[in-house]
Structures are given as C-alpha cells and as structure tokens.
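Appendix B, example 12.
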Amino acid sequence: MARLKYEPVPELSREEVERDLGSGDPERIGVALYSATYHDPDWRWVQEQCLRFLKHGQAGVRWAAATCLGDLAMFHRTLDLPRVLPELAEACKDEEIRSVAEESISFIKQAVKPQ
C-alpha cells in the first residue's frame, strides 16, 4: 500500500506563477494554482486564474482549479459568488472532478456570506 506524503505548497512569486500557468505543463499549472491560492494576497486575481483553468483539457488541472476555489473561500472568506458558483455548478457535470467541485461549493457556502 502506498503511503501519502505531505508536501508543503511552495511559495512562488507572481512572476513564477504566471510563467508556470503559461507553461502548458499540467503539473506546473497545478502547483502554480495551489501556490497562488495559498500565498498570493490578491484573491480576485487568484479566483480568475482558477476559473480560467476550470475547463482545462487535463483533469488534474481542472481538479486543482476546483479545489483552489474552495480553499480560496476558506482562506479569504470572500469570492465573487455570482461568477464562481455557476462555474462550479457546471464543473459538477464533469465526472472527473464532480466530487471536488461539490466539496468546494460546500466550503464556499460555509465560508462566504452572500452580500
């Protein structure tokens, strides 16, 4: 049985995140999304990057984007709900990321109060 090993999310600069998001490499894109979510103070910019990659061709990238939207809500206690919730609802139709999209919607509803 394989053992899971925790690895901290690296703190990349905005320049490094932008470079990796544009790399076309699913692994680098995923790490960049997590880094931005955990470390970039501009939640609006991070939200837009997550929404952008929510429809990526690779399931792992879509998974990271959906996960990061929920994490972003938990960290900042705010999101643009009219933009994010419909996109995550659409992501729930994607069998490969349905579970994480549903979980992120749940996190968002717990963390962000409608305005």
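Residues 64 and 74 are 15 Å apart (CA to CA). The radius of gyration is 14 Å.
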